Q: What sequence folds into this?
């Protein structure tokens, strides 16, 4: 009887192991490829393409991919100031920021995100926007693989070109043109701070018509921008 049980379990375990190895190989090759090749779309563009008119993807393609060193240094610094001030110090997970968030939750001071730019880039490029425990697990997994295979410059470049800035604008170039009739390279410090300020809630906040919360974030980001390192491009 024990031998029969072992033989019954062996096959599912074998296929599970094969599936895990296949998943690992596929995802590593996927991340490795995007180290050199720019992602052709993300889940938001794909969803818009099948469910709506595909305007988001067309607009993003018209704007074009912008290398990191051609994106305004003000925007690079503003995004670090607003989203991930220890970006160059951590390996994908900011445990210090996470501990602050947990303390705020315990003290009933509200809930705020602790996602790093690496985690957001992983979610934006490889996963879907809806929250779930599965997505969180995969987000952490992709973050580890990305940090192992990509440079910090590449992570920031992909993030800035693929992040959702609201109103159908994906990426810095598309958003800069849409909101300020300006290229991503020509953004002023004020414009860059306004764009960075809305990233936590781009579908409710506007960089051109900021509400009270956005104005406060802009002011804080402007103060912190000077303290941020300039992540250089290639």
A:
């Amino acid at each position: 009887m024990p031998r029969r049980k072992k033989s019954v379990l062996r096959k599912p375990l074998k296929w599970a192991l094969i599936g895990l190895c296949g998943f690992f190989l596929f995802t590593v090759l996927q991340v490795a490829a995007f180290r050199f090749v720019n992602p052709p779309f993300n889940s938001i563009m794909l969803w818009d393409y099948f469910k709506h008119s595909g305007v988001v993807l067309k607009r993003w393609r018209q704007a074009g991919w912008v290398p990191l060193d051609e994106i305004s240094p003000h925007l690079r610094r503003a995004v670090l100031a607003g989203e991930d001030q220890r970006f160059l110090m951590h390996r994908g997970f900011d445990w210090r920021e996470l501990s602050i968030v947990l303390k705020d939750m315990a003290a009933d001071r509200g809930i705020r995100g602790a996602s790093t730019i690496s985690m957001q880039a992983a979610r934006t490029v490889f996963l879907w926007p809806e929250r779930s425990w599965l997505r969180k697990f995969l987000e952490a997994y992709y973050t580890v693989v990305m940090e192992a295979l990509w440079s910090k410059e590449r992570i920031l470049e992909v993030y800035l070109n693929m992040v959702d800035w609201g109103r159908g604008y994906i990426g810095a170039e598309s958003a800069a043109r849409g909101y300020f009739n300006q290229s991503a390279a020509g953004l002023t410090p004020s414009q860059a701070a306004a764009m960075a300020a809305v990233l936590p809630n781009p579908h409710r906040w506007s960089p051109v018509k900021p509400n009270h919360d956005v104005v406060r974030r802009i002011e804080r980001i402007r103060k912190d921008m000077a303290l941020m390192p300039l992540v250089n491009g290639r």
